[in-house]
Amino acid sequence: MNTQSAETTLTPPRVGPAIAPLSRSSMAQWLIFIITAVLVLAPALPILLQVFVAGPLYERDWHFTFANIGRLLGNEAIGEIALTTLAFAGLTTVIAQVLGVAAALLFGRTDMPGRRVMGDMMMWPLYLSHLIMVVGWLIVYGPSGFLTQAFARMFGDAPWNLYSIPGMAIVAGVSQAPLAYLYCLYGVARSIDPTLESAARTCGAGPLTVMRRVTLPLMLPAIVTSSALNIVIAVEMLSIPLFLGRPARIDTLSSYLYLEGIGASNPQHGMVAASALVLVVLVGATLMLQRLLLSNGHRYETVKGKGTRPAPLQLGALKWPLFTLAALYIVFVVLVPILGLVLRAFTSYLTPLIPVWQVLTLQNFKDVFQTDAYMRALWNTLIISVAAAGLGTLLTALIALVIQRSSFPFRRTLEALAYSPRMVPGLITGLGVFYAAIVFAPFGWLRDSIWILVVAYVMATIPLGLGAVQPSVVQIGADLDKAARTVGADWITSMRRILLPLMKPALLGCFILLFVVHLKSYVVAIFLMAPGLEIMGVTMLGLWENGAAGVTAAFATLQIVMIAILLIAARLVFGVKLYE
Prior knowledge:
Elements: H1 2-10, H2 24-51, H3 67-74, H4 76-109, H5 115-122, H6 124-127, H7 130-141, H8 146-155, H9 165-189, H10 194-202, H11 207-218, H12 220-236, H13 239-245, H14 253-263, H15 269-293, H16 319-345, H17 363-369, H18 372-405, H19 411-419, H20 426-439, H21 450-460, H22 462-475, H23 478-486, H24 491-502, H25 504-520, H26 536-545, H27 549-572
């Protein structure tokens, strides 16, 4: 009896299976997943909700309806605007791809003189915003532009008209050509097996035939990828359709959303949200088509295990004619609009009828530096760019580490979430963040705060940052962090002590890339503007619309100088070149 009592006392009670507590590494991975999901989904859900709400979300007295969709489908103007958007985006992409692919072939695969210098200058429009580029083009090639007036005086009316879909597409295509050039140059043009081209040359093919029959077909994956990105950018582009399309009563979806959401005295929020979904569908369809076209990308592999050294194609007698064409493009399409913009900033009026030295002035810059709102826009832009670039670099680095270097069960879902903002145009991102700050109470503190712009910028550029950081994680051998794990280090410690230090060059490059993008960005911020939250891009947009061309040019010149200083410092001090 006593024995039984003792056994009864010492035997532990039977309970269910023990649940292992989350480790700090698992908690960190879940935290990264939740932050990413909130950043991506919080702006998207309110836009979808607004489509089915009769009035604006901030009225709180919601009445659910399908009328917004009905008005959208029954609105003939929306259909015409959508077709105009597709025509503009398609023509822009064709121009950008032709220019970019031609530049990649000439500067990357031939012995053309001056190809390195012209290749660097080819990239300049990519560093500047579309707003700066279109202002430069208008100052030089607009109806009252400097060269337009000079041409008209000598030969009659100028043969070009920027206030048309082809005119819009030319300016946009030139602005986006560097993207096609970048992808084609470093994706394929410098890594094609030269034996394929040599074989064609031994059969008697000339340099142009080799490029057309051998090099160009092998560049198809890079051409498809850059084409998809250029279509997406053209669909969401605002300043070029707004400045060049509106005078001719040509609207695209982005300019329509801007005018109905910001410019209208009584915005139709439901129609704006429904129209925004059309933009998202167009962008999503483009990206899905890209994936479909590249599903058999292995067919274009030319570089195998054996090392190859691409040799430049000899142009022979075509060398100097092609050099002349390339130089004329660089001078009149890239340099002249930028120089015209800078010159306009230092003049009270720019016209060939009056010598430039008679109208030189610093008044435009005085107006910028002596106006509180303008100086606030400048400092806000710098603060937002630094904060968003820093937070974006940190977040994308952590996302990349979870995706590539963890056993987190939802890492593929995390990757899909991180890249999904590519489907959402910047204008819609800003609109979604605006709605999220109204609908979701935890986001309420962001309203009328500079941090609402930082959050919007970070969310919009997660795919860009991840694309810059993730390759560096893949290139680092997994044995290094595995060795740390074998001696007792957990995931956090091995990432902090081993992976992140090895990723420093990539993180620095990512920060500089994001800083440049944020410095020239303005579309994301349009729906988030409030007194005290001015930024340079939106301020320039308003100044140009109000006819203050000189102050706009001064603002743009200051932005060009800031970007130039950053890029030069990045190359000289840190050895970072953004397009290598």
